[in-house]
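Possible race condition, two jobs.
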Amino acid sequence: MAVAAAIAAPAEAQVSRVAEGIRNVLTPALSGANTYKGYVTADYTQGFGTYRTNFASLTTSQGYKFTNWFYMGAGLGIDLLWSTADDTWGNDWQGSLPGWEKNNYTTAAVMIPVFSDFRFITGTQTSPSFFFNVRVGASFLCSDSYVKIHDGYLTQREYFFLQPSIGVRIPINTTNPRQAIDIGMHYRLMTSEYWSTWQYTAAINGLGLNVSFEW
């Protein structure tokens, strides 16, 4: 019994410390304390690779800064995409797709990204610092037409969405250090079933710049 008690005591202490840590993280958010944060972000993404398109985006993310270095939230936005297709688009393969000429095609469309947002911050709120941000979720195509992209077209309505970024946070209000401008670079990945005939999965890649206002 003495041995069992000696083993159980450290385990109980460890569980107690874990529970206390979880409580310390969640209590401020659940109580509505000053851990709430919001972001509005504008970004531009230049596509690259075989299957590519360009994006201009406006998004917002709302959530909580759980610690001095970690923010988690959820967001949505609007993407305007336009293709790099030219007058030679489809010359090599259109004739091999039955009924392709009956489909409606466009070179621009709107997408709606919905994502979880994770941000890691270094330094303090009162001085410039670095951040690493990851957004992951889904993006939905708002078009009844097929969308031309370089060397192909988009047919599906739902896409996996991933956008990591890294940059600098610059405070802009000495009396309210929660307000800042974030300037960063990002990589964007979108994947989906790509060809309507062969159901081939392709990755759409892009690199870009983003600017955010946070409060």
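Job #2 (started ~2 s after job #1):
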Amino acid sequence: MGTESLLKKIKIFAKAQISAFLGGIVDYSVMIFCTEVFHIFYVYSIGISGVVGAIVNFALNKTWTFRSKDRSYKHSMNVQLLKFILVVAGSIMLKSGGTYCVTTYLSIDYKISRLIVDLFVSLLFNFNMQKYWVFAKKQVAA
């Protein structure tokens, strides 16, 4: 692997983390707002906030991080959006379940539990699924 290729991969990873961070701030803020202001059980608030954060994350990843501009557009966009929705659904389930478990079994406040769980889900699940499945570049035959 050449230096240029490695630098490109590091740049994409960094941009994906920035996109995830911005989407995560929106997600986390909406979760706290729903739980603290509307008194929605935090597990349900994570579902609501996950959708809002996902919209922010999708827009940033599509246009900035992975620059996905495939113009076989409608089909590609529909497939890509469906894949993204499936990843978001998986992410929300992991975050909700993980936060519930950490909060319940380790007696840690849900706000802290959520941050711990998010770190693992973001790095191990979300990044890989988005890079290698949702926004994967099509390989050109040589």
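The two ends are 19 Å apart (CA to CA).
Logs attached separately.
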